[in-house]
Design goal:
Helix content: 25-40%
Strand order of the largest sheet: 3-4-5
Number of helices: 3
Radius of gyration: 13 Å
CATH class: Alpha Beta
Shape: globular
Low-confidence stretches: none
Distance between the termini: 38 Å
CATH architecture: 2-Layer Sandwich
Structural class: alpha+beta
Strand content: 15-25%
CATH superfamily: Fe-S cluster assembly (FSCA)
Mean pLDDT: 95
Largest sheet: 3 strands, mixed
Length: about 100
Amino acid sequence: MITEEQVMDALREVYDPELGINIVDLGLVYGVDISDGQVNVTMTLTTPGCPLHNAIAGGAEAAVRRLPGVESATVQVVWEPPWTPERLSEAARQRLGWQ
């Protein structure tokens, strides 16, 4: 059985190439829904016009698909609520020099 923790660990392997920080620590992942081998991830990006939209969302989907027991995975990018810097993890804040 796939757990949310496993999915989040897989998503930590997906980095925003401009910032060099994973999408979990950036606070881009809003939710994970798991049902009978199907994983649905709801996430956002730092800006709606992000030129790496497809690469980041595709990387997230690929990371989840690699998990044992995952039969299908989808990533839905949403814009509400909008991302704000308050969603950054402490590790991301330190890396960016935002204390």
